[in-house]
Each structure stands twice: as structure tokens, then as C-alpha cells.
Amino acid sequence: MARVYNFSAGPAVLPECVLQECADEMMDYRGSGMSVMEMSHRSKMYQAIVDEAEADLRTLMGIPANYHVLFLQGGAHQQFSAIPLNLCALPGAHGKADYINTGMWSKKALAEAKRFIDAAELASSADETFSYIPDCSDLPVREDADYVYICENNTIYGTVYHELPNTKGKTLVSDVSSMFLSQPHDVERYGVIYGGVQKNVGPAGISITIVRDDLVPQGDLADVPIMLQWRPQVDAGSMYNTPNCWAIYVCGKVFKWLLAQGGLEAMHERNVAKAQLLYDFLDESQMFRGTVRKQDRSLMNVPFVTGDAELDAAFVKESAAAGLENLKGHRSVGGMRASIYNAMPVEGVEALVSFMKQFEATH
Ligand SMILES: *Cc1c(COP(=O)(O)O)cnc(C)c1O
Question: What is the pLDDT of residue 331?
Fold first, then answer.
């Protein structure tokens, strides 16, 4: 077996021990004589898997009791629609929301919200190719906005909010797809904190939406497709319809792995140390440079360039040949990007830095 160091932005690397456990349980899950893929989602055995996953996630993140945890399908994109449709259906809502645009994912979320509500761009870093996070300490949030929306870690551009915006008392909604469980979050500061799991938590196919109870509309919303309404999923424990049983099961294993690693504080420390290795090298290199303003650098996604497209292409090719996979930057940015999620061992980052040094010396 030859495993590579996989720097993919998502779907992405998972802990090897989790993959091994899944393999071990594939043919016969704990004496059931079947795999989790073949099991009824209404069975006691499967219910125990979901209940344990939710309980472990609540422990990891310190999720207060007045927040619901939803395992939903349709990825983060489905929540781009669900967020305005639910939050603007609450009693007293104005059908307005303010979005901070820090890259493609917030831009897409804003475009989607505009289909349904009066959604506006509150701030943007488009003027410098999204290479920084705008100052969000005193933004002109509309008096009657129902919520303020951010994408907290920008997977493509490699920026992260080191401080949450001042929402002037409005509900904060945050897409944390590419930083989910990479560090502690104070859940109470958010109305909705959500993300697709295929970046840092599990296999593609589900999103986790953590939403405060008073933000889930009561009753049926006549003009909102049932699969976009949060209430039916809250009432059915994320099983209004057949969930992605397999992905929830794998996420549950990752939660246990994270608990065994010491939880999110410990994970954060490790992620800081890993990212430091790479950023320190980028700052001293004569050939490579990071593309993000220093104080806004992400711990998860690290874009860099040589400044020469041919050299970039050669780097991507030669690094792959050396067992360092998926280092090509997003097609909208070019250059390179190393995604160094929770499951990327420090040895992988060391191997990358050592390859970069060698590449610099020989080119
Ligand atoms: C990947 C990504 C998305 C899109 O996720 P899907 O599950 O494909 O809908 C949204 N937001 C962020 C921050 C992402 O990294």
C-alpha cells in the first residue's frame, strides 16, 4: 500500500486510523452481519451511531443545549438557499440580509440569497483578489437586516477571520466548511454555524448545520420546498428522509479521533505549528511567496506562487511525482495551494517544505 501526502482542498485527507476502522467494519458492523451502508436508517443500531455522533460533536464544540445539530444533504450549497429561506421566514423578519464578500463561496451564497430576499454586499475584498479580510469593526449593517453572513475561512484564497465581525447585534451566520473542527469556536456568538464536511471532517455528501432554536421557523413554510426547511429536520432528528448514513458514520469516527487527540484546543495548537512551518519557509524563500496578507492567513489553506506560470506548472508536476498530491491552486487563482487540514500529519508539511527547498535549489 502506498499512501501519498494529499493536499487536496476537498474532498480531502482523512485520518488513516478512521479509514482503517471503516475497512475493518465494512463487511460486518459489530456483529450485525452487514455494513453500515446496508443498514436501515430506522434501525436501533444506526440510531445509536447518529446519537453518538451528535453527542461527541456537542462535546467537542461545546454546543449549548439551545442549539440544534443537523446532518443534512445537498452540501454547503443547499444551505446557501436554506439560510435566507428559513431566517427570513421568522416572525418579524424583514427579508433583508447583509453579506461580507471574501471570495467565491460568500459570493455564491450572496447570489443565491438574492433569488429570495433583499441581500446586499456589506463589505468586500474583491479589490485585491480577496487576499485579505476587510475591517469589520464598524460596518454599515442595515438596521433591519435579519442577519450578517460571512465565510469564515476562504478555502480558495487562503484567508481567515481572526476576529468575528461586529454585526451590531444582528444574527451572525458563518460558513466554516474548510475550518470545521480545526479550532474551538464559541458557538454562542453565532446564530447559525455550518459547513460541508468534505474539507476537514468526513466524506462528501453532508453538511452540518448548527442553529439556535429560536432561528428555526415553527410550522410548515408553505412556499419553501420541504427539503430546504430546517424545522422538519429538527423534528425528525435529521431523518426527515433517508440521510447519508455512511457519511454520518464516518464523521462520527472522526469526532472520536478528535476527542482522542485532546479535542479542538489541542488540534488548534497542532494546526498552528503545521502552518507555521510552511509560512516561515514562504517568508524566507527567494522563489515562493504566499499570496495572503500576513495577519489574515488561514491555518488550513495556504496558497502560494513563484510568480512564473511555467515554474508553477513544473512545481505541481514534480511535486506530484514525489508523492505530494493536489498542490495545484484553484482554477480561479492559479499557482499552488496546500490544504493542511486536521488529518494532514506534520510529516506531510515537513515533506512539502523540504521538497520546496530542493525545488528552489535546482530551479
Ligand atoms: C467547498 C466549500 C463550499 C461548497 O461546498 P459544497 O458541499 O460543494 O456545496 C462552500 N463553502 C466553503 C467555504 C467551501 O470550502
Answer: 82
Tens-digit pLDDT profile for residues 275-326: 999 999 999 999 999 999 999 999 999 999 999 999 999 999 999 999 999 9
Rounded average pLDDT over 162-175 = 98
Q: What is the distance in A from the centroid of ligand 1 to the CA of 362? A: 37
Q: Is the CB of 177 under 6 A from ligand 1?
A: yes
Query: Which residues are CB-contacts of 313 (< 8 A; sequence separation ≥ 6)?
Result: none
Query: pLDDT tens digits, residue range 7-59?
Result: 999 999 999 999 999 999 999 999 999 999 999 999 999 999 999 999 999 99
Q: For the chain, where do the domains classified as CATH 3.40.640.10 start and end?
A: 17-260
Ligand 1 center to 261 CA (angstroms): 26
77 C-beta closer than 6 A to ligand 1: yes
Cα 249 to Cα 15: distance, rounded to the nearest angstrom: 14
CA 71 to CA 211: how far, in whole Å? 11
HSE, CB side, 13 Å, CA atoms: give it for residue 122: 29
Report whether CATH 3.40.640.10 matches the domain 17-260. yes
Residue 200: the pLDDT is 96
The CA 77 to ligand 1 mean position distance, Å, reads: 7
**2 to each of 8, 141, 343, how far by Cα in Å?**
17, 52, 17
Q: Residue 40 carries which DSSP code?
A: -
What is the rounded distance in angstroms from the CA atom of residue 130 to the CA atom of residue 255? Answer: 32
Residue 333 has pLDDT above 90, yes or no: no
Protein residue with least CA distance to atom 14, ligand 1:
177
Q: Catalytic residue numbers?
A: 105, 175, 199
Question: Could you tell me what percentage of the chain is helix, strand and coil, using 3-state DSSP and rounding each to the nearest 5?
Answer: 40, 15, 45
Query: Could you tell me where the DSSP H helices lie in the chain?
Result: 16-24, 44-61, 75-87, 104-114, 230-235, 245-260, 263-284, 309-321, 346-362
Q: Which ranges in the chain are annotated with CATH 3.90.1150.10?
A: 263-362
Which grid coordinates are listed for 62? 461545546
Mutate to test the pocket of ligand 1, among 178, 244, 332 (most ligand atoms within 8 A of CB): 178
Please work out whether the CB of residue 199 comes within 6 Å of at least one atom of ligand 1. Answer: yes
Say if domain 263-362 classifies as CATH 3.40.640.10: no
